[in-house]
Design brief:
Radius of gyration: 20 Å
Number of helices: 12
CATH architecture of the largest domain: 3-Layer(aba) Sandwich
Order of helices and strands: HEEHEHEHEHHEHHHHEEHHE
CATH superfamily of the largest domain: HUPs
Oligomer: single chain
Largest sheet: 4 strands, parallel
Helix content: 40-55%
Strand content: 5-15%
Distance between the termini: 34 Å
Number of domains: 2
């Protein structure tokens, strides 16, 4: 439902435009058609590709188009490690199978890397260096020439150390190359009937730990179970930010009331997981909230 300023904006939108889920940004469907054609052509020209596939909005669209254009010469590859939230692997595999795409997994060991564990602002660089290295080896073993990720054009405006690792290893970013924004990726996904078109954004569990605090397997498992406890209440988008003995829960504004209503259940579950203090962040969910302390 669109309300307030969004409703005012919607009344002025031409028939050839749509409002994106992510904001009141207008998506021009004519431009989307052109970019989709560019995306298809760019992927077809690769000849064969292994997609770094998480089952999220972006990588699912890349895998869908890759399978459409290249058939058996395309495959989705999911990296499995303790930083992957529970349930995501199963969902990713089921979706890849439903698309008819070849799917496989690789085990990655970034959480055992001291540089990754140190959790500096370069953590994602060390993670992606490991992941892409394993993915390229997997692609070669299957006779596949290229590796692609799900980076979109919006991601180019944010600081992403993992992008450096991708560039160093020759990983392609077909969505960004086609100039597709997140809103446009969602619109194309909706058109193609992909169930991920309105899926909440994903992030690895390590992103819940403030920079400078060591990333440990035990902490990742604790965070994962805490988020599962909140999701069981029907909350789709949740981050449990891990501040040692304190858990700071972020959800979208519309779900804050759910946390308050069920605060005793949530507090009990998280206390049992080892958190001494359980808090609700009244600012709600926002990407990169842990970066706020470093501004």
């Amino acid at each position: 439902m669109v309300t307030g300023q969004a409703a005012m904006t919607a009344t002025r939108v031409r028939p050839s435009t749509l409002i994106s889920l992510d904001s009141v940004t207008v998506v021009d469907t004519g431009q989307v058609d052109e970019k989709l054609a560019h995306l298809r052509m760019a992927i077809a020209e690769l000849g064969s590709v292994a997609v770094a596939y998480s089952g999220g909005v972006d990588s699912t669209l890349v895998l869908k188009i890759a399978h459409d254009m290249l058939g058996e010469r395309a495959m989705g590859v999911t990296a499995v490690s303790p930083s992957l939230p529970s349930g995501e692997l199963e969902e990713a595999e089921a979706l890849a199978r439903s698309l008819g795409a070849h799917f496989t997994t690789i085990e990655t060991h970034e959480v055992d890397d001291p540089d990754y564990q140190a959790n500096t602002e370069a953590r994602c660089y060390f993670c992606k260096t490991e992941v892409y290295g394993e993915l390229i080896a997997c692609a070669r073993a299957h006779g596949i020439a290229h590796v692609a990720d799900g980076l979109n054009s919006d991601d180019l405006t944010d600081r992403r150390p993992g992008r450096q690792a991708a560039e160093e290893q020759g990983v392609r970013s077909p969505l960004a190359e086609a100039g597709l924004s997140k809103a446009e990726v969602r619109e194309i996904s909706r058109r193609l009937g992909l169930p991920t078109w309105d899926k909440p954004s994903l992030a690895c569990l390590s992103s819940r730990i403030p920079y400078g605090m060591r990333v440990a397997r035990e902490a990742l498992a604790q965070i994962d179970r805490a988020e599962q406890a909140v999701r069981r209440l029907g909350v789709r988008q949740v981050r449990v930010r891990h501040h040692g003995s304190l858990a700071r829960i972020e959800v979208e504004a519309g779900d804050l009331a759910t946390l308050v209503t069920h605060r005793e259940i949530i507090a009990k579950a998280l206390h049992e997981l080892g958190y001494t203090y359980v808090t609700i962040d009244l600012d709600g969910y926002r990407m990169g909230s842990l970066n706020e302390a470093r501004r």
